[in-house]
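Structure ticket #2291
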Amino acid sequence: MSLGIPEKITALLFDLDGVLTSTAVLHRQAWRQTFEAMGQPFSEQDYLAYVDGKPRYDGVRSFLASRGLTPLEDEVRRIGDQKNELVNSIIDEQGITPYPASVDYLKAARAAGMPIGVVTSSANAMRVLRAGNLLDYVDALVDGNVITASNLRGKPAPDSFVEGARRLRTAPGNAAVFEDALAGVQAGRDGGFGFVVGVDRGNQAEALKAGGADVVVDELDELLS
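Resolution: structure written out below.
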């Protein structure tokens, strides 16, 4: 079975929220509740433009800067941690659902012997992967905890994806990136990755393409043939 990627690709790097699991919806809900409790209206476009795919503190800074606000670092962390507690509560209440088409693609990649990495800004990745029964597909994980501990720049910088490729023992030019966030697609492009797949979960196919995606799909199984 073809994976729909160039022959030079020897490893696959997947974002988690919005690519493998539907938890991006839960993150969006938590961000909205957090910011609206501060009296700051928060729209779908705000999520896509300012926080999607970014480490949580960067998301706080980015959104509040768009409102002309520059909070102290302690306040940034308080807001970010509050959002994290809220999303964990929502996960506990609603559970984790992997996208069936993404699981099909992971199964095909595993059957093809392709190394698989997950690269996410989330500090809750291990919990999400375990709850979604996805751990068996993951050979390397670069999450928010690794990004912080290794002093990596978060997306849209390519650092986390470069680290994922290193952990899979391949060069960026031989790795494919799968992303639903504009920040993640930009990271794949700027990191010189061999193939960037945009996953359109928010009616932003054109933006993903313009941002550097080589191909844009609604579901990952569209790549299988």
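Closing remark: The longest strand covers residues 175-179.
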